[in-house]
């Protein structure tokens, strides 16, 4: 392995890592994906917003994914905080901004399976189901040490190895972490009534309670609540939990039953001081972690990959190999503002729900009323939510080349 120098080495075989491998292999770069593939089902889904759909279309994997996903044509928000400034329910429809759907909801494990199947079709993509234990850099390339003791070299290493990233630690990139007094209960549900392709989010005093459509009369649940209450809910049997969910959902979808795996996820956040170091770029949860609110997490990770791909292609067009400093500086510029604004927005919404302070309730209620009633503002917010237009990577603009 030491004699073989790859253009790109990706460490981490989750959805973000595999999509990075596909993006670079699609462009003809000699690529290796390092990591064990994990498709465990834990009741978690992802709403792939319009920008991510365009990205996956460009990678030629969308037809296989869409067959297992449900469209999100309407997004409904209901204030269930009991606030004095509680606004009326508001609904946003994708047709208002010229889209068939804001996005598509699919189980995480199914998404990973479909991406993995596509990765096996590229001759220039090598899959190594091993763990990386070391990382070194010299002027010509980076070296990755595998758990077997073997090493491989690459001009650029992409760290997609999650929130506890080993590569980020070795590179000495500083991180800031924080936690919330909350956990998320996740589950797959079957229900009596049609969801009508509508995602419903109840804002409660302990966090958002969100039901997102799946194919058929099924939905996924993300119930963010206090850590103590989440532990209590997680301890219930399927029948009792389904009744609790139905009550919290105000019987909106009728009788419910648990129809898949369940999960319990403590709420936490992570940010990094920088998104790159010599011959390394951070993507996905190696670069940012925040609560599962607003469907931003994995979509942000896909934007990381598409943005890094743009920087690498630009370097190649100028006669440079992928790991040059200018490539990494361009990537840093492209991600810094986007990630920090999204992280701040999600953190701010979550904290206003928890605060219970009258000024915070007033601002949140007034903001929702303004978005609901002011047409141009409403459309701008919807468009920015599903596909940021300022600095959007090329593969998310429908540009396949």
Automatic annotation (TrEMBL):
Pfam families: FAD_binding_3. Residues 7-311 form the FAD-binding domain. The keyword Oxidoreductase applies. The keyword Oxidoreductase applies. InterPro entries: FAD-bd, FAD/NAD-bd_sf, UbiH/COQ6, UbiH/COQ6_monooxygenase. SUPFAM superfamilies: FAD/NAD(P)-binding domain. Keywords: FAD, Flavoprotein, Monooxygenase, Oxidoreductase. Pathway: Cofactor biosynthesis; ubiquinone biosynthesis. It comes from the Bacteria. Its cofactor is FAD. GO terms for molecular function: FAD binding; monooxygenase activity; oxidoreductase activity, acting on paired donors, with incorporation or reduction of molecular oxygen. GO terms for biological process: ubiquinone biosynthetic process. PANTHER family: UBIQUINONE BIOSYNTHESIS MONOOXYGENASE COQ6, MITOCHONDRIAL. Belongs to the UbiH/COQ6 family. This is UbiH/UbiF family hydroxylase. It comes from Microvirga alba. The lineage of its organism: Bacteria, Pseudomonadati, Pseudomonadota, Alphaproteobacteria, Hyphomicrobiales.
């Amino acid at each position: 392995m030491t004699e073989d120098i790859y253009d790109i080495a990706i460490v981490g075989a989750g959805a973000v890592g595999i999509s990075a491998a596909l993006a670079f292999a699609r462009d003809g770069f000699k690529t290796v994906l390092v990591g064990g593939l994990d498709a465990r089902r834990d009741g978690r889904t992802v709403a792939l917003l319009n920008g991510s759909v365009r990205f996956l279309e460009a990678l030629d994997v969308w037809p296989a994914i869409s067959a297992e996903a449900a469209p999100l044509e309407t997004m409904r928000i209901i204030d269930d905080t009991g606030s004095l400034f509680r606004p009326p329910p508001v609904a946003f429809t994708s047709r208002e901004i010229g889209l068939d759907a804001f996005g598509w909801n699919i189980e995480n494990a199914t998404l990973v399976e479909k991406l993995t199947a596509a990765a096996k079709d590229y001759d220039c993509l090598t899959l190594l189901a091993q763990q990386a234990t070391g990382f070194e850099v010299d002027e010509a390339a980076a070296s990755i040490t595998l758990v077997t003791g073997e090493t491989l070299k690459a001009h650029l290493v992409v760290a997609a190895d999650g929130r506890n990233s080993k590569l980020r630690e070795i590179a000495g990139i500083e991180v800031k972490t924080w936690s919330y007094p909350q956990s998320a209960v996740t589950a797959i549900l079957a229900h009596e009534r049609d969801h009508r392709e509508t995602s419903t989010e109840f804002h409660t005093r302990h966090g958002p309670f969100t039901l997102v459509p799946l194919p058929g009369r099924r939905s996924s649940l993300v119930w963010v609540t206090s850590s103590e209450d989440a532990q209590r809910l997680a301890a219930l049997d399927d029948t009792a939990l389904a009744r609790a969910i139905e009550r919290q959902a105000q019987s909106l979808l009728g009788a419910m039953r648990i129809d898949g795996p369940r999960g319990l996820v403590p709420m936490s956040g992570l940010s990094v001081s920088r998104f790159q170091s010599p011959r390394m770029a951070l993507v996905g949860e190696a670069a940012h972690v925040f609560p599962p609110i607003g469907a931003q997490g994995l979509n942000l990770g896909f934007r990381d990959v598409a943005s890094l791909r743009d920087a690498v292609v630009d370097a190649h067009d100028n006669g440079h190999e992928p790991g040059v400093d200018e490539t990494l500086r361009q990537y840093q510029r492209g991600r810094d503002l986007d990630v920090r604004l999204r992280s701040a927005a999600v953190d701010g919404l979550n904290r206003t729900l928890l605060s219970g302070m009258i000024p915070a309730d007033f601002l949140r209620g007034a903001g929702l009323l303004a978005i609901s009633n002011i047409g141009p503002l409403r459309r701008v917010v919807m468009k920015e939510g599903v596909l940021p237009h300022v600095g959007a990577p090329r593969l998310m603009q429908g540009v396949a080349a």
